[in-house]
Amino acid sequence: MSGSAEIRLTLPHHLRSLARIDGELRLEVAPAADGTLSLAAVLDALEARFPVLRGTLRDQASGRRRAFVRFFACQEDLSHQPATDPLPQPVAEGREVLIVLGAMAGG
Amino acid sequence: MKQGVRVLVGTKKGAFVLSSDAGRDRWEVAGPFFAGWEIYHLKGSPVDPNRIYASQSSGWFGQLIQRSDDGGRSWNPVGNDFRYDGVPGTHQWYDGTPHPWEFARVWHLEPSLGDRDTVYAGVEDAALFKSVDGGASWQELSGLRLHGTGKDWQPGAGGLCLHTILLHPTKAERITVAISSAGSFRSDDAGVSWRPINKGLHSEQIPDPVAEVGHCVHHIAMHPKRPDVLFMQKHWDVMRSDDGGDSWREVSGNLPSDFGFVIDVHAHEPETIYVVPIKSDSEHFPPDGKLRVYRSRSGGQEWEALSQGLPQEHCYVNVMRDAMAVDGLDECGVYFGTTGGQVYASRNGGDSWTAIAQNLPAVLSVEVQTLR
To answer: What is the pTM of this model?
Structure first.
């Protein structure tokens, strides 16, 4: 793979409001040298395009995912895998949506 | 600008702005702003009342700071990178073990008295941050956390939070803060160096009741014309200092309970103060189910109950530490919000009360801007 890839992403309501966007987002993401796309690269691209989202999905100092943020795609929970792992190929190719959501939690 | 009052209400699920003209008998409610987010605090700049800062946070998506430049009609997010200075180190955890300092949220925002772009933030885990660019970037005043007692600080039930920031109106270098449950601290060099100011506090909930730190201070209030007189609502006990916090004495007097969270001072009478007694540390509701503000006109010790217009039966709400404020109109207005979602106002110094908003989410903070 060369150049950037376009992935599809949905954000939870509160973050769409912050970023002032509606519906599904298409995001240009730069792949790694081996051609794979990681969640970390997606978040880098997302925060670069929408700086207001810095700190909302991962801690700005440590880079750790916020405890009540989840990443789903292809009927899998990707939240607990290392952020530098490759995303599923259908997500990287824009055929499947990467779903970002707030975990089920009361309050 | 038309003379009037703007009440800034932070709640568990958004912010509300209540506005009235100087008559204070008809209120317009705007909001919710930031619906679904916890708004721990909003406060306007004394220099430019159109400049308002708000702390927006959630358990899901962390902390944001919002800023309005049009009196709360529209808002824009500014900086939210609260990074501790250097290696944060540890404080004590609930079980007494060392626990790493971790940023959780901003509890209190205190705009500068002289510059609309300078604002202080009190955060959990306890630290003081400062912005000089309207909230775009934040730097920790780490002399507070690192002055020596920080390793012994322990969180209260609400977390290890810095919730009170007092800026001295004439000694520009003096900042006083309070932390639950560490106590009160003062800097006389604009936040570079700090020392505990807890002499006279007595807390039976800690092994040494008169220890230098470890006291659960709930709130401190100051009248700008008498800035060396401080009034404190501690976990238990209402306290007073006449020397800027160097020493404290108890003024709980005839209160039905000296537990509580809020305390404030009348806008024109520096010896008239207000508290809302709460039954106990485990029963966070008014004694006897009667919501009563208590007023002392003698700087403490002798208190009178103010109940006209407030519910006098079956009332089991709480009033959080930052949820009382006064306006500066000729006849001082007093305002407070409850965990039941009511905001009560008195336009006669507390003699009688009216609910100016009801059924809001639980109120976390109330601030008042007097518009002239």
So the answer is: 0.96
E strands present in chain A = 5-10, 25-29, 69-73, 76-77, 97-102
Residue of B60, B57, B72 whose CA lies nearest to B9: B72
- Residue B59 contacts A where some CB pair is shorter than 8 Å: yes
In this structure, which amino acid lies at residue B223? H
Please enumerate in sequence order all residues whose Cβ is within 8 A of that of B283, keeping only pairs 6 or more positions apart, or say none: none
State the Cα–Cα distance between residues B342 and B60, nearest whole angstrom.
26
Which secondary structure element, helix H or strand E, spans residue A39, and what is its range?
Answer: helix A39-49
Using one digit for the tens of pLDDT, what is the confidence trace for B239-257?
999 999 999 999 999 999 9
β-sheet bridge partners, residue B104: none
Report how far residue B344's alpha carbon sits from residue B334's, in angstroms, rounded to the nearest whole number.
8
Q: What is the pLDDT of residue A1?
A: 46
Instruction: Collect all residues of chain B within an 8 Å Cβ-Cβ radius of residue A12.
Output: 60
CA-based nearest residue in chain A for residue B57: A56
Domains detected in chain A: 5-102 (3.10.20.30)
d(CA A30, CA B18): 47
Put simply, the answer to whether B63 touches A55 (Cβ < 8 Å) is yes
- Contact predicate B244/B228, CB 8 Å: yes
- Residue B181 C-beta-side C-alpha neighbours within 13 Å: 21
Which value does ipTM take for this structure? Answer: 0.92
Label residue A2 left, alpha or beta by phi (over 0 means left) and psi (-120 to 50 means alpha): beta
- Cα-based torsion angle of the residue sequence B221, B31, B126, B190 in order, rounded to the nearest 10 degrees: -60
For residue B113 the two structure tokens come to 């008295």
Q: Which amino acid is at B91?
A: H
User: Cβ–Cβ contacts within 10 Å for residue B59, how many?
Assistant: 16
B23 at the A interface (CB within 8 A)?
A: no
With H, G, I as helix, E, B as strand and everything else as coil, classify residue B181. Answer: coil
User: Which residue bears the tokens 């003209």?
Assistant: B21
Sign of the four-CA dihedral A15, B8, B251, B230: positive
CB-based contact, B303 to chain A, within 8 Å: no
Q: How many CA atoms lie within 13 A of B100 on its CB side?
A: 6
- A14: which DSSP letter? H
Give the residue ranges of chain B where pLDDT is below 70. 1
Among B13, B37, B56, B61, the residue to mutate for chain A (most A Cβ within 10 A): B61
**Which amino acid is present at B77?**
P
CB contact under 8 A, A105 and B63: no
Structure tokens at B319: 């009033």
The DSSP symbol for B150 reads G
- In this complex, do A103 and B77 lie within 8 Å of one another by their Cβ atoms? no
